[in-house]
Design a protein that fits this description.
Strand order of the largest sheet: 1-2-3
Structural class: mainly alpha
Mean pLDDT: 92
Number of helices: 5
Strand content: 5-15%
Number of strands: 3
Largest sheet: 3 strands, antiparallel
Length: 144
């Protein structure tokens, strides 16, 4: 507990760095921040704007992995867990908003031990994947 505040503050610094670095990217939505709240920043979830990308979430994750960046997928909707699918017959269409949002979420590395150089690599990789994917979307639009 003695270190809890310092660890949260370090995650907050990294989250702010990501927010500043990605603020101009139209391909992602950043997690919201409220001035009247203290965020723990235990995760940094990006919501992909898949309509502006030629890849889906799994392709985005694979492209980051190819650049040496590990990610996570969190918040699998309960109705998509095998127990609920089997026990109650729930399907993605039963809760379409939760199902759709989940398919756009990627959690970036956000650890208090992440160095500035490592954070730079995350930023660079996300920007490269977005730039590559957006150019391909634009090429499709021009060709159509």
């Amino acid at each position: 507990l003695r270190r809890a505040l310092a660890l949260r503050q370090r995650r907050e610094q990294l989250a702010e760095r990501y927010r500043e670095s990605f603020s101009d990217l139209s391909e992602v939505e950043l997690p919201p921040v409220r001035a009247d709240r203290i965020h723990s920043w235990h995760l940094f979830p990006l919501r992909l704007r898949t309509e502006r990308l030629v890849i889906d979430r799994n392709g985005f994750i694979d492209a980051l992995k190819a650049r040496g960046i590990g990610t996570s997928v969190h918040w699998r909707p309960l109705h998509l867990h095998p127990y609920y699918e089997t026990s109650f017959g729930w399907r993605p269409g039963d809760l379409p908003v939760a199902s759709a949002v989940w398919q756009r979420l990627v959690s970036l590395p956000l650890s208090p031990t992440l160095t500035a150089a490592e954070a730079d690599l995350v930023v660079q990789a996300v920007r490269e994947v977005c730039a590559f994917s957006s150019r391909r979307v634009e090429s499709r639009r021009l060709a159509a």
